[in-house]
Design a protein that fits this description.
globular; 2 helices; 102 residues; 3-stranded parallel β-sheet; 11% strand; alpha/beta
């Protein structure tokens, strides 16, 4: 069995978790939070962590935090510096552009 941890935000996949007592409201943009969770996953013998790229805010930021506030490659670079035995997986969004040839 291969174990993978999907990193959604600084709080996990529960949209209201950021409101729990003792939670850091800024954890979703705290790179140290990503590193800490990756180290725990590595210690727990997870084979990889996964972060999806979502180039849009799809949540109502009044009651909810953004699901994916940070570029996956930025977060994974920080994780790579602090871990040794865990795979790093991300998706990349493609932006469409039009090239004009004259």
């Amino acid at each position: 069995m291969q174990l993978a941890l999907q990193m959604v935000s600084g709080y996990g996949a529960e949209f209201s978790a950021w409101r729990m007592p003792g939670t850091d409201p800024a954890a979703y943009t705290n790179i140290d939070s990503y590193v800490e969770r990756a180290k725990l996953a590595e210690k727990g013998k997870f084979q990889m962590i996964f972060i999806a790229d979502t180039p849009a805010l799809t949540n109502d930021l009044g009651p909810q935090t953004p699901m994916f506030p940070m570029d996956p490659m930025l977060a994974l670079m920080a994780v790579a510096r602090e871990t040794k035995h865990i795979g790093l997986v991300a998706t990349r969004s493609q932006r469409h552009s039009i090239t004009h040839i004259t």
